Batch of 2 targets.
Target 1
Amino acid sequence: MSTSSFAIELPPHLLARARNGDVHAFEEIYRLFERPVYTLAWRLLNDADEAQETLHDAMLRLFQKLSQFRDEAPFWSWLRQIAVNEALMRLRRRRLIDYTDVLPELVDERTPAALLERHDLAQALAQLPAITRSVVWLFHVEGYSHQEIAQQFGKTESFSKSQLARGTQKLRGLLAPHPEGLAHVGYV
């Protein structure tokens, strides 16, 4: 899995205190990871209330499973996995996802052409089925491997690859240059 923009190191003494049941250590961990967990959940769910609930659920699950954390991988990677699982459970319940406003890091927003491209990409993503959108997002933005995506959905790597291929093909078709130029979106 690629490194997230929120690669936060957890001090070993804080982890040890939390494992020993120190409530103040749990609070420090919560504060340390609150923003990145919320941001990840919001990007997957595009709903502030659901992202907040996902944050709370993920942190509760973290505290319940803290004794299972092994120091073989970075703590943030482990917590991130918990947060993604919680967000995907909400997504499955909701069966709906809208990426209209969650793509700022994919396109440089400073130029009018980039703003149009971002808007077009968001609209194209919104037309994909929810599962396909999730696979595309997890692979391209979150940096998950096909194996990791397959594990998230309880499917095979072939499932992830085929969803990504379908999504990519559909996005290419939706984003292909229009013969009439920008007239199709009212800019000309």
Target 2
Amino acid sequence: MSNNTVTAFKNTLNRELKRMVSRPIYFISTFVIMTFCYVFFLTFFNEGQPNKMPIGIVDLDNSSISRQFVRNLEATQQAKIVMRLNSHKEAREEMQRGNIYAFVEIKRNFANDAITNRRPTLTFYINDAYLIAGSLISKDITYMSAATSIGMQQKVLRAKGIDESRIKGIIQPIALDTHLIGNPWANYGTYLLNVILPGMLQLMVLLMTAFPIGVEYKQRTSREWVENANHSMFAALTGKLLPYTVIFTFLGIIGNILLYKYMHYPLNSSIGWMFLATFLLVISSQAVGVIFIGITPVLRDGVTFAGIFGTLGITFAGSTFPIEQMPMGSRIISELFPIHHYFNIYVDQALNGIDIHYSLISYVFMLAFLILPFFVFNRLKNAAISQNYPTK
């Protein structure tokens, strides 16, 4: 790198630092928003799962067996009985008002029918419009219903004089040995935050790449910006974006420390690989941001496209729905998002702890994004000098 390029880079860097401290929006869009995201999401998911969600009980039998079932259900982690209702109609109305997520209806003669092997029905209704709440409550009610059924079978078999050692084999001839890999606690924080927080980081990097460049065109200072860099577009861009690279890399590393050291989310390899992935996520997102503002050197359009791309990135990361099950077109599109490759690294390194060479392709993909700005260098430079784009 020649002395002229180094000087141009330093001039641009100093100029950008002065612009950053002159307007609060730069501080808010970097430190404040990401700090808020960390505090909000880590606090929100502190418990890992929503607990003690309100449900209702319609116990028309009121026998010792039905009361025991109700006590056992209330002892589960997710369900909290807040209403004891007198009829199906009353329970349905409470669910429609949103006062309860579910209700269980125990019909008359439930205990008598169970003892005499008449197979009584235990009915429960769940509002699945609330997907997470509905699925968690359904799991607890189903488990407790099965446990009650097993308990009744045990009593009947004991009454028939069957030996205790044979009862378990009759009730459950096949024993299950379940191992949940990666997230055995079913912690929704582990499931979501390792994508939401990097996704928010990618979004803010995209916006704070398009905005500082686009505002030069809007304020008609773009010519001064390029001249200050001695007409070197490479020096102009690197000098302008370096402060944001440092800030967002620092914030991303802080996020990794919070997730893996403070929240103790699964980390089965060196945290250094996640630091490297975070740095590459930042610079690859900046490269994409340069493309958007380069294609349309208008502040409003560039920021809009960057925002849309950043929002879609969380969808195409592959955490909420597996990429392998998407249509071929969607699978190809997912490769265009840096957050998708970051998520692959997270799964391989943090969750599975496999050898690093399996993740090298994801690191290479993220590095490949750095080629993109070179395609719009001339367009950015011409637009900066001619200033012939609308100041939106």
